[in-house]
Amino acid sequence: MPGTDTQESIALLPRASTLAERVDAQFFTLLWVDALMVVVLFGLIIGFAVYYRRGTLRNRVSNAPQTRVEITWSTALLLIFLSIFAWSAHLYVEASSPPKNALEIHGIGKQWMWKFEHRGGQREINELHVPLGVPVKVILATQDVIHSFFVPAFRMKQDVVPGRLRVAWFTPSRVGRYHLFCAEYCGLDHSRMRGHVVVMERNDYEAWLAGFTGTESLAAQGEKLFSQYGCIGCHGPGSKVLAPGLGGIFGKSVPLAGGSIAVVDENYLRDSILAPEQQVVAGYQPIMPSFAGRIDEADLMRLIAYIKSLSAPQGAP
Ligand SMILES: [Cu+2]
After folding, report:
1. Does residue 142 sit in the same domain as residue 164?
2. Residue 258 forms part of a structural domain
């Protein structure tokens, strides 16, 4: 183990994301509050047991209710617990809302490995390279059973369930190599479903990305699939079928038949492809065939990347 890390890894898990610092701050505050409670409560129990013990006559004191003491004590506790709740809720909401400008990386869990694909099409298995100080949003899918994306040094864990895309996000705050685990028992080789997240300085990361040759961006791969699967026949320009155009829809709200409104995010696109009959766009016939069972998670993520790229600001890939 490299010299500088040894001491810390014995004492504590490394803290390698901005969230890790905040989670630890909260964890240790709670630990100290609890420790204080234990000392106060047990101190009082033991103290009173001795002070009011039988035979001292002190136990003859009145046992009329001490209303003021009761109210103060209960209110104080209530306020303490409510502020802990507010603090935790705030942390939880932030930990589950990735910033808009986050770097997006796709990940797929399968028995028994993690596969990642960067925007430019760079692929890796059981390793995830990320730049320091940049918010990273990992869009996760599973090809089979439930897995869980767990990076202890980031204090972050996200279950990945079949049929849904899940998002894990973090801002790495320390260069290094950190464990990545699957934290959901997923079959025979579950314990070997692990890898590393490698946090690099930004220019090192760029250089690392550039080191791949012959990669094609996810969106470009998705564009090819868009013709291969025949989507273009209905959604492409000049199509004879009445189908909505897909340019610019990402992030917008669409009115659905039946009067409800859906926001176009990754899961909406995924559902539109696999179960189009469930969310039919208002004003269109439900003629789009379901592609469930015909498109796997890897191709789905490419198609989604392509449709998203149609909504990207000019110039962005
Ligand atoms: Cu797993």
Report:
1. yes
2. yes
